[in-house]
Amino acid sequence: MKIFSSLHLLAALGVLGAATGASAQVDTSQWKCTSCPYPKGTTGSVDAGLGHVSDSSQKFGDYTGLDKNGAFLVLDGNVSRRGDDGYFADLWGADLGLDSRRLYGQAGREGLYSVNVGYAEIPRHLTEGARTPFLGSGGSVLTLPPGFPAADTSSMPLATTLQPIDTGFKYKRVDLGGTFIGEQGWSANLSLRHDERDGTRPVSGSFFSTASQFVAPVNEKTDGAELTVAYATKQLQATVSYLFSSFRNDDTGLTWSNPFFPVVPGATTGQLGLAPDNQFQQLRGTAGYDISPTIRVSGEVAYGRMTQNDGFLAPTVNTILAPTVPPLPGQLPGRKDRHVHRERQDDRDADGGPARDGQLRPRQPARTRRRCAAIRPSRPTCSSARRRAATRRSASRSTGSS
Amino acid sequence: MQERNQTCLGCHQARARIGWHASTHERSGVACADCHRIHQDRDPVLVKSSEPDVCFSCHRQKRADFQKPSTHPVRFGLMGCSDCHSPHGSTTTAMLNKPTLNQTCFSCHGDKRGPLLWEHAPVAEDCSLCHTAHGSLRNALLTKTPPLLCQQCHAPADHPSVARTSQSLPGGSAGGSVFLVAGGCTSCHSRVHGSNHPAGAKLLR
């Protein structure tokens, strides 16, 4: 109730100001808000303690970091400082004694600028009690111990070769950013981000009619930067932003030994293609304009480009087939462009009430224009599956974009 | 509600609030103070770990979804709703904070972005054709269990895609358990998000 009372007071003052004239030469220098005293100085709190996990469990530790039995440190805390003239600084941390720790800091001057940093870890545990006969798990080449290959699973020496393995990876994220609020409605924001994933994940591979499950390495990094410039007045608000993101994978392929007698001569090893390095850039603009107090138009235009330039893997690692396969060019110049634009017009009740569905002007469906699959050496993306997917979507969705 | 919001929008109309007018939340009569606490030192909706509870006060189905076995780590405080959504409105469906759904997903899952030599059409089109973002009883947030998921598009015309029953499970009388156990179709077609291998046309490599 106290909040509403304060707002009513502010609203009443606003009405009073409007009633005394559009020029509103109101001296606000002596205004004070007694409902929300501005704290100054340094404050903070720390939560510390010990916890205990009774049993080891990969599933229990997924996202939490509590995968092993035993004691763990409970440590959370925050510290804030509020200075004169709007200067502030905050530091906040949670689960600092676990693999799911997060740390976040922000400092600046209210209404003028701020900078922020962040660090977070996310532990992933993907399997519970998994075992594998493959040697070299976590690397890009998997081999098998003596006794392989075999005619079928029951003939394999699994009793003596299966080794326990935990699959999962740790996700680390570092954020750095800043916001600057300028004069006359201008502001800018810069966000930088670095992501890392290190570990393993389960994967499958097959030779004709036999399939195996094994472990693929995860050594992936993503760097991103986004710069946004915004302009805002009472009638017009607009932003222009540029986004760049770069994904890097330390492993381009995974080679594994065939645990079954090969059907095709020479098929003793196979190779999977892993996610390639890629880049994404996007220029995006959004704007909204109040034509009148009851009519507003808004829209968005975005143009993005995804590229990659990874080298080709060998078409086959079968030493018998390899001499019969023609050589490929050295690199894969792939590019995909995506263009999105949407616009809308919304009407509001003349009495200023919220717009409702039935009062919206016929809204133009979100329209997406895409140019894609500019990939060499062929256009494998235009497959029958794609046509089926498109047919299914058109039946289930009247409008939309991707 | 409108008057209360105007007090805030007088300063906060820029950037993320451009889409507020006639957004889903505004049309539903949501006031700024319904989510924000202006007299608290740390507004709960601006803190990632407590933000979901604010959203869940209305979006109760989503609260249930995030309790499912396969989910994004929202209930652990490692993600917030605003990592994907723009609650003040956007031009996309579901008020996403990126221009498209796929781009929203790729902002974390850059390994799925490509472009790839051999793409899987629904992956390039719309991640939600196979995955649900908020929670699933199946691994990897899948909307259905393979092979049923795959068979929604892949009819028998292109592949021996037989409609299996529980009799095909190991020990059953129908045979074909290889299509149901482990990863189902993905036991062989493991590069289901696309392949960069020259021999990956069928997403086997």
Describe the structure.
The complex is a heterodimer of chains A (402) and B (205). The model of chain A is unreliable at 1-24 and 350-402 (pLDDT under 50). Chain A has helices at 2-19, 58-61, 158-161, 384-396, and strands at residues 41-53, 70-82, 87-94, 102-109, 113-125, 131-132, 141-142, 163-164, 168-181, 186-207, 210-232, 236-249, 253-257, 269-273, 278-292, 295-308, 334-347, 367-375. The longest helix of chain A is centred in the first third of the chain and has 18 residues, at 2-19. By secondary structure, chain A is mostly beta strands. By secondary structure, chain B is mainly α. Chain B folds into two domains: 2-97, no CATH class; 101-205, no CATH class. Helix content of chain B is 22%, strand content 0%. Chain B has helices at 2-12, 24-27, 32-35, 51-56, 60-65, 101-106, 121-125, 148-151. The longest helix of chain B has 11 residues, at 2-12. In chain B, 39% of the residues are buried. The mean pLDDT of chain B is 88. The chains are: A mainly beta (402), B mainly alpha (205). Chains A and B meet through α1, β10, β11, β12 and β14 of A and α1, α6 and α7 of B.
